[in-house]
Amino acid sequence: MADGLSVPVPLLHPQATDDPRLMRWLIGTRQLSGVPPQVHALIDEGVLEQAEVGPGEVRTWLGANRSWDVDGPRVRSALFDALSAQPAEVSEQELRDGIDEILAREVSPVAASHGGAITVHSVHDGVLTVELTGACLGCPLSGRTLGDLITRSVQARYPQIREVKAAQPRRAWLKLKRR
C-alpha cells in the first residue's frame, strides 16, 4: 500500500460438500454481517442461486447450468473483495464466544459421549486454556483430544490461537468429621 502499512490477506478457503452445487468458503476470523453486495450481484446475474453467511464461513449455491470450474473464480474474487473490506480484528469477548461455540458444536458431543466435558477456561495472548471435567479429567487420551480435535477445530477459524492447553485441575480439601 502507498502508506507503507501491510494489510493482512483474508483467509478464503473453498471446501467441497456432498451437494455438487454447494461450496462452503471458510473465511477465518473475518465476519460478514450478511451476504455482501459483490455476491448479490452474482445472484442477480444467475451465477449463484443463493448464498448464506455463517460464523467463519459463507455457503454459495451455483445457479442452473453453471460449473465451479467456470464460475468458481468469479465467486472467489467477489468474496475476496468483500472480505478485504472487512476488519480482521476480533474482540476478546467475540473470540471467547466463537471458541465456546466451536467447542459446543464440535468437541462437547464427543466428550459427552464418553462421560466428560470440555469448556473454555481462558483465552490470553494466543493461548487457549480449556478445563477438562468428568471422564476427560485424567483421561490418557486427553492430550490427543487437545492436540487433534480442539486445536484443529479452533485454529481453522481462529489462526491467532497458537497453543491449546489443559488447565490444572482444581484441588479442594475435604474436611473429615470425627466420630
Describe the structure.
With 179 residues, the protein is an alpha+beta fold. It is 36% helix and 24% strand. The chain contains four helices and seven strands; from the N terminus they run E-E-H-E-E-H-H-E-E-H-E. The strands form two sheets. Strands 1-2-4-3 form a four-stranded antiparallel beta sheet. A hairpin with a 2-residue loop joins strand 5 and strand 6. The radius of gyration is 21 Å and the shape is elongated. The N terminus is likely disordered.
Could you outline the blueprint of secondary structure elements for this entry?
Blueprint: E1 13-16, E2 22-26, H1 37-45, E3 48-54, E4 57-62, H2 68-84, H3 92-113, E5 116-124, E6 127-134, H4 142-157, E7 163-166
Parallel strand pairs: 6-7
Antiparallel strand pairs: 1-2, 2-4, 3-4, 5-6
List keywords for this structure.
about 180 residues, about 35% helix, 4 helices, elongated, four-stranded antiparallel β-sheet, three-stranded mixed β-sheet, alpha+beta, disordered N terminus
